[in-house]
């Protein structure tokens, strides 16, 4: 079976590597254009492109696939490459571009998407983040037959995965990426012998995982401690939850809910030496790992040594300033 592949970040690279390693023929890869990254803001290839280049797989990087859009020449070139590669199916994983009808209809078996949620819950751009933020107990991978809607296609395979109490988006991402790589191989093997049975998504339970905005990183101490703790985990590694401490933006990477404590939201509570506890709208939050601008992630004890002015009674602003 000839499998074209469309994807961009590490999540997609894991699936591409699994397909390639399993022996599927991958004649073409589509990925986003190189983007500036790092301190020097040099152009950097996506993880998918890096894998494809290392394994001699042809790559195309259109800015759009719309033949009537802003970049019709790039879209037409991508269409010519897809037609020439004669793929039986296209696998799509976190590609980042909308697939117009001509793409969905071109492969014999259509386009299969690896989606990191239990559809129809968390359709959209950030299903891993939003599942943690909402306090979901489970998530998973859905292999979906793509249609013209936003993650609305028929489900082909579904497998659940528990969300552990300490999971961050980074840790859950890695487990879901591995699961997605395994499941897409199983789906393609089933498709090769006609064994896939499409199931329409339920009409009930639809939620949307809207893109994470940097403005969401600011901690509001007026929220319940549990909600803040979930957001800290959901925003690790991006964009990182942050708060203002005496005019300095500080990122919070690890925290623990302390429901038995409380006080005026944003107030630093008395705590044993080396521990930092802040009152919230409900309960309190013990801050474990923090990061000052330009520094590394450090335990609360080291943070307090560097900021001796942070002591019981200090009130942190309820509407925080985000650390860049």
TrEMBL record:
Entry keyword Protein biosynthesis: yes
The protein's name in its UniProt record: Methionyl-tRNA formyltransferase
Catalysed reactions, as listed in the record: L-methionyl-tRNA(fMet) + (6R)-10-formyltetrahydrofolate = N-formyl-L-methionyl-tRNA(fMet) + (6S)-5,6,7,8-tetrahydrofolate + H(+)
GO CC term (a single one): cytosol
Binding positions ((6S)-5,6,7,8-tetrahydrofolate): 117-120
GO MF term set: methionyl-tRNA formyltransferase activity
Entry function: Attaches a formyl group to the free amino group of methionyl-tRNA(fMet). The formyl group appears to play a dual role in the initiator identity of N-formylmethionyl-tRNA by promoting its recognition by IF2 and preventing the misappropriation of this tRNA by the elongation apparatus.
Species this protein is from: Aquincola agrisoli
Chain ranges of the Formyl transferase N-terminal domain: 1-188
HAMAP family: Formyl_trans (MF_00182)
Annotated CDD domains: FMT_core_Met-tRNA-FMT_N, Met_tRNA_FMT_C
Lineage of the species this protein comes from: Bacteria, Pseudomonadati, Pseudomonadota, Betaproteobacteria, Burkholderiales
InterPro entries in the record: Fmt, Formyl_trans_C, Formyl_trans_C_sf, Formyl_transf_N, Formyl_transf_N_sf, Formyl_transferase-like_C_sf, GART_AS, Met-tRNA-FMT_C
Pfam families: Formyl_trans_C, Formyl_trans_N
Keyword annotations: Protein biosynthesis, Transferase
Annotated family: Belongs to the Fmt family.
Ranges of residues in domain Formyl transferase C-terminal: 211-306
Chain segments annotated as transmembrane: none
């Amino acid at each position: 079976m000839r499998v074209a592949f469309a994807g961009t970040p590490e999540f997609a690279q894991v699936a591409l590597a699994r397909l390639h390693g399993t022996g599927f023929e991958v004649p073409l890869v589509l990925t986003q254009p190189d983007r500036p990254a790092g301190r020097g803001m040099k152009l950097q290839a996506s993880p998918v492109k890096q894998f494809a280049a290392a394994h001699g797989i042809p790559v195309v990087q259109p800015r759009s696939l719309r033949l009537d859009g802003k970049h019709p020449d790039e879209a037409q070139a991508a269409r010519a490459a897809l037609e020439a590669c004669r793929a039986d199916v296209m696998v799509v994983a976190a590609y980042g571009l909308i697939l117009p009808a001509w793409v969905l209809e071109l492969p014999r078996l259509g386009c299969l998407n690896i989606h990191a949620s239990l559809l129809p819950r968390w359709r959209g751009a950030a299903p891993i983040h939003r599942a943690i933020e909402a306090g979901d107990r489970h998530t998973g991978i859905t292999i979906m037959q793509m249609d013209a809607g936003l993650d609305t296609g028929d489900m082909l395979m579904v497998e659940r995965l528990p969300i552990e109490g300490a999971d961050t988006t980074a840790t859950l991402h890695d487990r879901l990426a591995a699961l997605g790589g395994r499941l897409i191989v199983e789906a393609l093997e089933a498709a090769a012998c006609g064994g896939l049975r499409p199931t329409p998504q339920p009409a009930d339970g639809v939620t949307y995982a809207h893109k994470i905005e940097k403005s969401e990183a600011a901690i509001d101490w007026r929220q319940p401690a549990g909600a803040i703790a979930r957001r800290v985990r959901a925003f690790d590694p991006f964009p990182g939850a942050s708060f203002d401490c005496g005019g300095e933006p500080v990122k919070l990477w690890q925290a623990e809910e302390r429901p038995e404590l409380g006080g005026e939201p944003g107030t630093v509570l008395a705590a044993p030496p080396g521990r930092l506890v802040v009152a919230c709208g409900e309960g309190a939050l013990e801050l474990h790992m923090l990061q000052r601008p330009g520094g590394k992630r450090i335990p609360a004890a080291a943070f307090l040594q560097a900021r001796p002015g942070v002591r019981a009674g200090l009130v942190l602003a309820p509407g925080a300033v985000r650390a860049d």
